[in-house]
Amino acid sequence: MDLLIDLVKQGITVVMATHALVHANRADRTIELLDGRITGEFAKPQ
What we know:
alpha+beta
């Protein structure tokens, strides 16, 4: 995860799919899917 965070700090966009909430909570933006449809979208305040 630290490597991905470092890439983002360099301006590189990272897209990650996970079921682990501990990893999703470190993301700046999270999109939840259910059966291929968006059910929620959350962004951390900047």
